[in-house]
Structure formats: structure tokens, C-alpha cells
């Protein structure tokens, strides 16, 4: 079987290559993106993932992971700011009863559209940081792999939400609004269960085990809020009509909080730049 060359590797995931290109030398951008693509899409399920991270050496791997987690943290902060700005601009949709996606419809809808893109990019950076940190170790497991799959759906879903605007209440259902709804449901499930599986996969002696005590409770909360948000629309439509926007924001906030806190924890676990030591887990 022919192995993918540099051009094939770049084309395998062009968007991610663009996002991570500042962090890698030109000759390694495609290689790194291809590794993540292979990890998420092409490796047979039972295969161990310890050989998938592109690791020239431990210090380089750690430095790149730290950059990616720092970008994810900055993205979470930017998301909160842009969301507040979009909410404060006309037509002043209700944050309690109306979905966050409604903010992307209107004269200033581009602010929320940019925020969807921001959410997708920060989530992809976090995901690739996880690949560098965990999948290059001997502690990779099926739960982490499942979590990576699910979180990839959440990440790509956010980018697709930017491309397909929703339909605000009291307007006819459009094809792009229907696509938006289906993508949103898939992304929500991916975010909730991606956080849960990755948290459960933070096993003892893993480079990310230190984050489990904080990450797992938030992930469980995210799953509960996701269930209430999605199922509540069918079981209690009246309640959802009045408080659906609030429930959705609580759920999105829980996933973003999980991304931010885990990123901070992994920055704390990683050894200083220039060190050749592998990350060592320290129980709290």
C-alpha cells in the first residue's frame, strides 16, 4: 500500500493544517494533520494509539501541546466575550427563551457566526493537544478514542453551524434551518459524550490523570444538561419554550468550562519548555 506523501497529508485535513500551521515547521504540518486524521478516521478500532502522535521528541511534543491548550483557553474567553457582545446588539433576542443560534440571524448576526467558527477552532486545538499529550503515551485507551471521535463531531459541528443559519421562531422552516438543527443535535451529543469519555479515559499514570477529579463531574453535568435540553423539548414543550435558551446556554457553558479547565490542568501537568522529561502525573 502506498504511504501518503506530504501533499496527501496536507490535503487529508486542510482546515486543521491551516489552524496548526504556525505551530509546526513547514515540512511537518501535513504530517501532523495526517496523524490526527488517521487517529480519528482510519485506524481499526482495537488498534493502540501510542504510535499516532507526531513526536520528534518529548520537549517538542510538550511545547506544541502547550501552545494548543493555550489557544483553547484563549478561545473559550473570546467565546464568552463575543457571545455577550452578540446578545447586547439588536434585535435583542431573549437569552432565557431563545436559542443561542438565533443571535446569528439579524443585522449583527456575523458576530455569532464568527463565534461558531471560534468554537470549532478552539475545540480542534484542544483535540489535537489531547492527541499530542495522551496518544503519544502508553496510556491511550478506547474511552479516549471514543471521546476524540465525539469531540471531533462537536468541533466540526460548530463550523457547520456557522455555514447554515437557523430559523428564528415564527418563521417558516428552511432547508438551511433544518440542516442547522440536525447539526446542532449531533454537535451537542458529541460535546457532552466527548467530554465524558475523555474524562473517563483519564486513567491512573496517564499524563492527564490529574485533571480527572475536576473534569469528570463537569462532564457528567454536561451530559445531564444535554439530556434535559434535547429530551425536554419533547417531554415538556411548554417549559422548553420558556426556558430553552437558558438550558442551552447552561449546557454550552458546561462544555466550554470543561474544555477550559482541562486545558489549564494539562498546562500545569506539562513539564517546562526545553525539558526532556515526560509529563509525570501527581495525584492531588
Structure description:
By secondary structure, the protein is mainly alpha-helical. It has one domain. The chain has nine helices and no strands. Helix 4 (58-88) packs antiparallel against helix 9 (237-269) and helix 7 (175-200) packs antiparallel against helix 8.
Largest sheet: none
**What's the number of domains?**
1
Distance between the termini: 47 Å
Binned strand content:
under 5%
* Mean pLDDT metric: 80
Q: If you compute it from the alpha carbons, what radius of gyration comes out, rounded to the nearest whole angstrom?
A: 19 Å
Helix content: 55-70%
The chain-level structural class is mainly alpha
Number of strands: 0
Note the run of SSEs as H and E: HHHHHHHHH
What's the helix and strand layout?
Blueprint: H1 6-12, H2 14-20, H3 29-42, H4 58-88, H5 109-133, H6 142-163, H7 175-200, H8 212-235, H9 237-269
Task: Please give a quick description of this structure.
With 284 residues, the protein is mostly helical. Helices cover 67% and strands 0% of the residues.
List the keywords.
mainly alpha, 9 helices, globular
Amino acid at each position: 500500500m502506498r504511504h501518503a506523501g506530504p501533499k496527501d497529508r496536507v490535503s487529508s485535513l486542510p482546515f486543521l493544517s491551516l489552524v496548526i500551521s504556525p505551530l509546526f515547521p513547514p515540512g511537518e504540518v501535513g504530517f501532523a494533520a495526517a496523524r490526527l486524521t488517521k487517529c480519528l478516521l482510519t485506524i481499526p478500532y482495537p488498534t493502540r494509539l501510542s504510535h499516532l502522535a507526531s513526536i520528534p521528541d518529548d520537549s517538542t511534543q510538550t511545547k506544541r501541546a502547550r501552545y494548543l491548550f493555550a489557544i483553547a483557553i484563549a478561545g473559550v474567553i473570546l467565546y464568552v466575550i463575543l457571545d455577550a457582545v452578540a446578545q447586547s446588539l439588536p434585535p435583542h433576542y431573549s437569552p432565557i427563551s431563545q436559542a443561542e443560534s438565533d443571535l446569528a440571524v439579524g443585522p449583527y448576526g456575523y458576530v455569532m457566526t464568527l463565534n461558531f467558527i471560534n468554537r470549532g477552532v478552539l475545540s480542534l486545538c484542544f483535540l489535537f493537544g489531547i492527541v499530542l499529550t495522551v496518544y503519544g503515551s502508553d496510556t491511550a485507551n478506547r474511552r479516549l478514542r471514543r471521546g476524540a471521535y465525539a469531540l471531533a463531531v462537536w468541533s466540526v459541528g460548530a463550523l457547520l453551524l456557522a455555514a447554515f443559519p437557523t430559523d428564528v421562531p415564527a418563521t417558516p422552516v428552511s432547508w438551511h434551518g433544518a440542516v442547522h438543527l440536525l447539526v446542532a443535535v449531533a454537535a451537542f451529543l458529541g460535546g457532552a459524550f466527548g467530554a465524558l469519555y475523555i474524562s473517563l479515559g483519564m486513567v491512573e499514570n496517564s499524563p492527564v490523570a490529574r485533571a480527572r477529579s475536576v473534569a469528570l463531574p463537569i462532564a457528567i453535568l454536561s451530559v445531564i444538561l444535554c439530556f434535559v435540553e434535547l429530551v425536554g423539548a419533547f417531554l415538556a414543550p411548554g417549559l422548553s419554550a420558556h426556558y430553552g435558551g437558558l438550558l442551552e446556554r447552561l449546557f454550552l457553558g458546561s462544555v466550554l468550562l470543561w474544555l477550559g479547565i482541562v486545558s489549564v490542568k494539562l498546562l500545569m501537568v506539562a513539564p517546562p519548555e526545553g525539558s526532556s522529561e515526560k509529563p509525570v502525573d501527581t495525584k492531588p
